[in-house]
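U., I forgot to send this yesterday:
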Amino acid sequence: MEVGLGNAQLVQPGPGRKRDVIDGQGLQDLHSVGRRRAACRPEERTLRPSRQADRYYQSWITTCDQEIAEQRQNLDRRTPPDASPLPPERYPHRPRTNEFRLDMRRELYRIYGTDLTPIPSINALPGYTLLAEVGTDWSRFRNGEAFASGTCLGPQNKKSGGKILSAHTRRSANRVNRALRLAAQTRERSTSYLGAYYRTMRARHGAPAAITAAAHKLARILFHLVTTGQAYDESLFAAQEQRQRKPMENKLKRSAQQLGYQLIPLG
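Result:
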């Protein structure tokens, strides 16, 4: 009797009720006519170099982690020693396999002097992308608009004769651009201010333009927090939205009055 290891993905159960004996006889018949072949099993001499290569790569990863830790310690500390401890994370997430084996949120707070994770859709991974791509010195950017333009999130106006022919954003492989676009796309069903802004822009201009607009707003928010050291406060956006809503209500009241109607609030 010759025993072979088969690929379970290529084995389909026979018709009728599931029985191990019947399935085994069916596999034996298929194997006897050459319809099922034994899977390839690497020999021990092939597996040994693979294990050695894996250990070699793991040693290099460990060395890289140690160098990253040394570089982190060399970065300037912007958080005062008597700063209050960080509150619990507002939007906790399940740790991913590619995350660092350290408290990334606390390290970002130490380096930047402010907590970036209260921003919706921003966690420690996009924060470390900012740190790796931009660094700690953001003074080379004039303002938030310049930072958004540097990450290819601003419009690239093509003019001819004083007329704008195109205002599309530039194509780029910038990692900050990609991280902010992914963060903006996750706000589709969010109840936060950024979620409402994304849905408004999507209704006006479509999903691609809404992602770009929301990512542009995220870039300006991040620039303001990092350069000023202030904490994220979403109530400011609610007050701004209320100020923008007031002229719209007045316009509706005037239109209703011209038509002989009167608007009465529901609440």
